Amino acid sequence: MTEAADNSTFGIQCDDLSLWYGSFQALYNVSTQIKPGIISGLIGPSGCGKTTLLRCCNRMNERLGNVRTQGRVLVGGKNIYDADVSLIELRKSVGMVFQRPNPLPLSISANILFGLQLHDGRRLSRSQQAEIVESALTEVMLWDDVKDRLKMKATGLQLEQQQKLCIARLLPLKPAVLLMDEPCSALDAEGTEAIEELLTNLRGRYTILIVTHNMGQASRISDECLFMLNGLLVEHGPTSQVFLKPRDKRTEEYVEGRYG
Amino acid sequence: MSDPADIPAKALFVATPAVRRRLRSQRVAVVCLSLASLAIFLPLAAVLIGLVKKALPALTWEFIVDVPRKGMTAGGIWPALVGTLYFVTLSLLAAAPIGILAGIYLNEFARDNWLTRVINLAVVNLSGVPSIVHALFGVAAFVIMLRWGQSIRAASATLAVMVLPVIIVATKEALSAVPRSFREACWNVGATRWQTIRTVVLPNSIGGILTGVILAVSRAAGETAPIMVTGAIFYKVVARGDLFPYSINEQGMALSYHLYQISRNVPNMPESMLYATALVLVVFVLAFNSVATVLRVRLRRRKKW
Ligand SMILES: Nc1ncnc2c1ncn2[C@@H]1O[C@H](COP(=O)(O)OP(=O)(O)O)[C@@H](O)[C@H]1O
Ligand SMILES: [Mg+2]
C-alpha cells in the first residue's frame, strides 16, 4: 500500500506526538503509521503509555485536566487536533472499547441504538431499529445468544457478552477506526477466545488498534505490532517480524522475557 | 521439626490463644458499636413514645382540621399545618431547581479553578450557618431590601436560601456516584456532555437528588428561627379546613412557630394540645424522611452496576 493510499483511507498517522500529564511526560515524539483495515497490536510493559497513545487517537485524554498534547494525529488524513475538528463527529468514526466492559444500564437494544439516537434527531421506524440491532449483534457474534432477550438489561449479561455488546454499540455509527484498550483483561480464557474470534471476524472492515498485555494474543490476532517502552515507540512492524526478528534489542528482551 | 503426620488430627484448626485474644477484642468492639447505635435509637424512640402518650387526649381528627379557638387553648392547628405546607412548597419551588442545576453545573461542567473552589467552599459554609443568621439575612434581603415586608414569600425565600446547600451537596454527591465509565461510554459514541447528563447521568442519580430535596423539605418544615422574623404570624383568621387560606404577600402561621408560641406565650395551654402539635410536626418531618429512605432503597435495588 502506498503512502497516498494510506492517507485517503482511514489509517492513523502520528507525527511527532508528545503528551504531558502536568509535568510528567507520558509520550515522547511518537511517529508512526497505523495501516487501514488491519489489526495493529500495541504491546509494552504496564505504564509505558499504551493507553495514553490509544486515547490520543480519539482525544479522550482531554477530558482529564492538565493534559498537554503536542504533534499531530491524522485520521483519514485529517489532523484531529485541528481547531475545526468536532469531537462529536470524531468520536463517531473513532470508537473505543475499554478494559472493563461498560454497557449502559439500559436494555441490550437500547445500548445498540443509543449512539444513533443521539445523532439523528429523527426517529427510526421499529423495523429499521430491529434491523440495526440485529446486524450489529450479528457482526459481533452475539445475536444468537441474546436475540430472545433484547429488552433485558445489558448490565445483567456475562462479562464477555457485555464486552461484545460494547463493540457492537459502536458499529451502527459506521466507525472507521476501533480502538481497544485491553478488551480481554477482565475476561476468562473462554471469553478471551470469543473476543479474539470476533476480532478476526471484523478484520478488514475496520482499522483496529488493540492494546494487549497478552503476548500470545498479540501474536495470534494482530497483523502488525507496535512495541512501546517508557513513552517511546520502540518498534513497529509486521507481527511475525516483531516477534521473531525484532530489530531493537529492547523489543527482543521484552518479547523473550515474556516467553521465558 | 516434627513430621506433619505426627500432629494429632484433633489439634488441627483449633484456635490458638492468640486467635482467641483477637476474637475477644472483636467481641468487645461489636458490643461497643451496637451500644452506640442503640444510643442513637433509644432517645428517638423515647421521644416518640413520650409524645404520643401525652398527646393522645388531644389527638383527634378535629384537632388537625379545626382552627385554634379560645386564644389557642381549644380547637386545632389547621392554619399552622397549611401554613407549613405553604412555606415548604414555596421554598422548594425556589430552591430545588436552582440547587439541582447548580449541583449539575458544579459537578459536570465547572473546571477546577479558583472560582469553582470558592463556590464549593461557599456551599459547604452556607450549610453550616446557624439558622438565626439566615433569618437576619432574610430580613435584610427580602423583607427590607426587596420590600416584600413580613410575608410568606419573604419567609419562603429565606428558607430556600437555607436549604439550598443541602440540595446542591446532595445533587453533587448523587452525580459523582455515577461511574465514570458510563460517561466514557457516552462520549465514545459522540454524545455531548449535556446529552450524556440527560440520557445517562441524571436517570441514574435521580434517587440521590430526590433524597436531597426531601431532606431539604424536612429541614425547612422544622425550622422556627428563619420564619419567625420574616413571615410567620401568631394568629390568623382562617376557615376550618380551607386548603388555600393565605396569599403569599401576607404572613402565615406555621407549625414550628405555633408550637413555639403556645409553649411559651399562651397562658393556660392544655398540655395535651402542646404535645399533639409537636407530634404532628415530628410526624410531618419523619414522614418525609421515610419517603426519602424508601426511595433511596428502591432506586438502589433497581439499578445494578
Ligand atoms: N491521568 C493521569 N495523570 C497523570 N499521570 C498519568 C495519568 N494517566 C496515566 N498516567 C501516567 O502515564 C504513564 C502511562 O500510562 P498509561 O498510558 O496508562 O500506561 P499503560 O496503558 O501502558 O499501562 C504512566 O506512568 C501513568 O502513571
Ligand atoms: Mg493501560
List keywords for this structure.
heterodimer, A: alpha/beta, six-stranded mixed β-sheet, 25% strand, globular, B: mainly alpha, MetI-like fold, two-stranded antiparallel ribbon, 69% helix, binds adenosine-5'-diphosphate, binds magnesium ion
Please, could you describe this protein's structure?
The complex is a heterodimer of chains A (260) and B (305). Chain A has a domain at 4-105 and 180-255: Rossmann fold (3-Layer(aba) Sandwich). Chain A is an alpha/beta fold and 260 residues long. Chain A is 38% helix and 25% strand. In chain A, the strands form two sheets. In chain A, strands 6-7-8-3-9-10 form a six-stranded mixed beta sheet, sandwiched between helices. A four-stranded antiparallel beta sheet of chain A has the order 2-1-4-5, with helices on one face. Chain A is globular, with a radius of gyration of 18 Å. Chain B is mainly alpha-helical. Chain B has two domains: 16-55; 61-300, MetI-like fold. In chain B, strands 1-2 form a two-stranded antiparallel ribbon. In chain B, 38% of the residues are buried. The mean pLDDT of chain B is 89. The chains are: A alpha/beta (260), B mainly alpha (305). At the A-B interface, helix 3 and helix 4 of A face helix 7 and helix 8 of B. The structure holds adenosine-5'-diphosphate (ADP) and magnesium ion. Adenosine-5'-diphosphate binds at residues 21, 24, 26, 44, 46-52, 64 of chain A.
Strand content of chain A: 15-25%
Q: How would the global form of chain B be characterised?
A: globular
Q: Point out poorly predicted stretches of chain A.
A: 1-8
By CATH, the superfamily of the largest domain in chain B comes out as MetI-like
CATH topology of the largest domain in chain B: MetI-like fold
Question: How would you summarize what this structure contains?
Answer:
The complex is a heterodimer of chains A (260) and B (305). Chain A is 38% helix and 25% strand. Chain A is an alpha/beta fold and 260 residues long.
Fold topology:
The complex is a heterodimer of chains A (260) and B (305).
Chain A: H1 3-8, E1 12-21, E2 24-34, E3 39-43, H2 50-56, E4 67-75, E5 78-79, H3 87-93, E6 94-97, H4 108-119, H5 126-139, H6 143-146, H7 159-168, E7 177-181, H8 189-202, E8 207-211, H9 215-221, E9 224-229, E10 232-238, H10 239-244, H11 249-259
Parallel strand pairs in A: 3-8, 3-9, 6-7, 7-8
Antiparallel strand pairs in A: 1-2, 1-4, 4-5, 9-10
Helix pairs in contact in A: 7-8
Chain B: H1 17-55, H2 61-65, E1 68-69, E2 74-75, H3 78-109, H4 114-126, H5 131-145, H6 152-176, H7 180-187, H8 193-201, H9 206-222, H10 225-228, H11 255-264, H12 271-302
Antiparallel strand pairs in B: 1-2
Helix pairs in contact in B: 1-12, 3-6, 3-9, 3-11, 5-6, 6-9, 7-8, 9-12, 11-12
Bound molecules: adenosine-5'-diphosphate (ADP) and magnesium ion.
